Amino acid sequence: EESRDMRLKLIAGNLVIVLLVGLGSYLVVRTQLRSELSRRLEDSIGDDSELFARSWRADGARLAEGVGNRATSNSVRNVFTALGESNHRRRAFEAAQDVSEWFKDPARGRGERPHIVAVIDETGRVIARDTDRNRMYGDPLLNSVPVLRRVLRRGASRYGVWAHEDKLLQVGVAAIRNDQGGVVGALLVGYDLSNGFAKQEASLIGHDLLFVMGERIYSTSTSVEIRDALQEALYSPPLDSGTLAALQGKPTLPWIMTLAGDEYVGITAALPMARGVEAAYVVLADHAKHTALAGVANMILWLTLLGIAGVAIYGYIIANSLMDPIEQMEDDILAVINGRGDVRLEVDTPELGGLSYRVNQLINLFTGVAEEDEEGRAVTSSGGWESVSASGSGAASGSIAPGPVKANDPEASALAAVPEGEYYAQLYKEYLAAKQAVGEDVSSIPEARFIERIKGNAVHLLKKHEAQMVRFKVETTGNQVNLKPVVIH
Of the four listed, 300, 349, 365, 487, which is most buried by Cβ atoms within 10 Å? Predict the structure, then answer.
């Protein structure tokens, strides 16, 4: 249970760090991107509104130019040379029909028939219009079409806006002159500001476009749901005052509004050349669409998940590489505590190899058995190195005899010849005598336990040196009593 908790701590700590760094980076980057993109959108929507205004003026100028071209045609001028009211009206109707067909050509107009073509006399009254010769006959237009008065007075071509029969029209008006150059009437061509026109202009500016007429939205490039939501918002606080000002000719600053659950940025302005008509337009930008670039921050989340997976796998491997040897060392130490004197710690990891070696030294110190190195030397309690050669001559002479003991060494042969039972009894007596000689208490060293540990150490050294037999002899150095192994090959 404890090792599992330790593994969890090693892995979970790193996972939490990666998660916090990843989420923090995601939130910071996403917030900064959205903030910058929102600022740019609010700064640019005014320019986009001006872009539409320029497009509107260009369309109006082209329309006025086309109407001026038709106003000089024979079919239109001949209207005013006809004799009699009947002929006058007939020619006016035919001229209006011809002009309507002329503008139907996509190269000259919007690719559709105008909503209205009217031939007007010098007093501003309708002589005839297209589609129906009797409809609008005699209707005065000077007050309802503000641009008409200037055309009749100055004899030029103009464009403007006309609210006619619940329709909002862009109109072009041109003077009709007689052979002497005098203004005898005017030709009017009007196009409806329809949803189709709004969508066409919206594609140009890259935002939605809506035309406002009086107290309602007249046409739109948006969905019906967005249109209805904006209809309510434009005439309710806090946008109502700005809408009223825009209808009077003063554009608003960019505003932000939630419509149908989504956030939009918009600006409201009066239609150019709409003097005398309450007509405005709204440029509407979907905030989410124009801040979608902030979505690249989501890549940080995916990279964070990838990092979490990598850290989890790597942490699991590292935790096991550390905890498995530690668990094995714990089991081995517990075995030694429980009386298994033959057990020694053996780990393959370089990280814990040094610790394992020092623990083995400590075990040997407490069990009275010297630890050997690869050259056949044993460490004493004082930390010095002595020969563990089976010849026994090294200790006497003070020299160190490297390598394994030869099989014909006299001391090795003598120890090998002693029967096992006699050998353990004799070794135990010599060990107790040496301990007592240096003044140590031997009451806590039972013979059975002593022999068990000696056998365990012998087995360990047999494996280590691949020997036939390992015997021990008692050696006293100063006040330290050691059991020196004699390896017999």
Answer: 487
Instruction: Cite the DSSP H helix spans in 338-401.
Output: 350-367, 393-397
Closest CA to 172 of 52, 278, 68: 68
- List, for residues 337-368, the tens digit of each pLDDT value: 877 767 777 777 777 778 877 888 787 777 65
Q: 167 — phi, psi (to 5°)?
A: -115, 150
Residues 6+ apart with CB under 8 A from 163: 144, 169, 213, 214, 277, 278, 279
* Burial (0-12, 13-18, 19+ Cβ within 10 Å), 216: exposed
Domain edges within the chain: 72-192, 339-488
Predicted confidence (pLDDT) per residue in 124-146, tens digit: 999 999 999 999 999 999 999 98
**Do 198 and 211 touch, CB atoms closer than 8 A?**
yes
Cα–Cα dist 404/390, whole Å: 8
Q: Which of 122, 93, 117 is nearest to 182 (CA)?
A: 122
Residue from 103, 323, 257, 282 nearest 191 by CA: 103
105: its two tokens: 């050509």
Instruction: Indicate whether this model's pTM tops 0.70.
Output: no
**CATH code linked to domain 72-192:** 3.30.450.20
Largest CA distance in the chain: 158
426 against 391, higher pLDDT: 426
What is the C-alpha separation between 323 and 334, in angstroms, rounded?
16
Q: How many CB atoms lie within 10 A of CB 337?
A: 10
- pLDDT tier at 370 (50, 70, 90 boundaries)? low
